[in-house]
Amino acid sequence: MESLSLLIIYTLLVVSIPAGTLIVSWVLGQRHQSKAMDDPYESGIVVTDSARLRFPARFYLVAMFFVIFDLEVIFIFAWAIAFRELGWAGYIAVFIFVMVLAVVLLYEWRTGALDFGPQGKKIIKAFKKLKSA
């Protein structure tokens, strides 16, 4: 019975803190309306262009980089902690995992995803164009 009362108190706290924050912000907040305030995601800033953007394919290649260089650290770190308990089966599993990541990295390298910046001639050409404008 005691644990149920603690759960009820915890639930009341979890609900009352965000509700209290919303009530205080409504009481203390400003009360003005403008055309820009009715636009979603703009928060009073006048809309200048469409929010519909097309992402280039390079964006998805960078997302694959995130998986290769950041997310696998979590898995390899967990494997390293439990290295002795996992034995050879764990070693083979992490080896296969690293090989799959190496294949993805090789794919990105071959598709040119590692070429992030423009070549030097393009930079000079763009600089001259900006300077003359």
What's a concise summary of this model?
The protein is 71% helix and 0% strand.
Explained architecture:
By secondary structure, this protein is mostly helical. It has a domain at 56-116: NADH:ubiquinone/plastoquinone oxidoreductase, chain 3 (Methane Monooxygenase Hydroxylase, Chain G, domain 1). Helix content is 71%, strand content 0%. It has helices spanning 2-28, 57-81, 83-111, 120-132. Helix 2 packs antiparallel against helix 3 (83-111). It is flat, with a radius of gyration of 27 Å. The chain starts with a helix and ends with a helix. 0% of the residues are buried.
Which stretches are poorly predicted, pLDDT < 50 over at least 5 residues?
none
Strand content: under 5%
Which CATH architecture of the domain at 56-116 would you pick? Up-down Bundle
The major beta sheet can be summarized as: none
- Backbone CA Rg: 27 Å
Reported by name, the CATH topology of the domain at 56-116 is Methane Monooxygenase Hydroxylase, Chain G, domain 1
In percent, how helical is the residue content?
A: over 70%
SS element count, helices: 4
Summing up helix and strand content along with how strands pair, one would put the structural category as mainly alpha
